[in-house]
Amino acid sequence: MRLKDKIAVVTGGARGIGRAISERYAREGARVVVADLLIDEAKETARAIGDAASAVAVDVSRLASIKEMGRAVADSVGAPDILVNGAAIFGMAPLAEITEEHFDRQFDINVRGLLFTTQVIAAQMIAAGKKGKIINFSSQAGRRGEANVAVYCATKAAVISITQSCALELIKYGINVNGIAPGVVDTPMWDQVDALFAKYENRPIGEKKRLVGEAVPHGRMGLPEDITGAAVFLASEDADYILAQTLNVDGGNWMS
Question: Does residue 173 have an active-site annotation?
Fold first, then answer.
């Protein structure tokens, strides 16, 4: 077990990629805290995992909630060894229809939330003298722009930049910060994504999902389980000499 006796916090851990990572971390020996705004789903995920998991509510768009989550984790299981910043939302609109609310909500969760969660949990790692691992979730959308997806793409590009900056700052404490950029992954969120593409590209429901899956060089959309190996690797001792990198896990969609 590659993460034996480690304490891991996974934001956005209730469903999709976050849930798959939480389950895999537990199998690798970690104690997992499933942190999510969807607390009922987070509790269900923790119950499904078993004694190695617990759930805590967090709204990453609010610093007070992040701090409360951090205190709850410290009080229940101790300072984390691993943080996975997985909480995120997707939004889509043509340039002419982007509103301040549309912009602010995505940046509040995808960027601001990630930064301040890193701030809070990294402080706990430092205070405890732990050589931790922080894994931030970007996207292939952070590597390139896409029509009608300007705000989301910008948030995920910002994640790559924050990953680099935090990595260079925190390595002096023995904390490695890296990222993962998934491609198209078949999660519940993709049903929402598909519906938005249907609206703005005038497509039938399901067509965009089918097309993007066919376009992946590997031959299919990713599954949440396809991301977990990279998440385990970056959280393990095998990644001790890796920092400031964002690893593409996308079936060959983007080469860098």
Answer: no
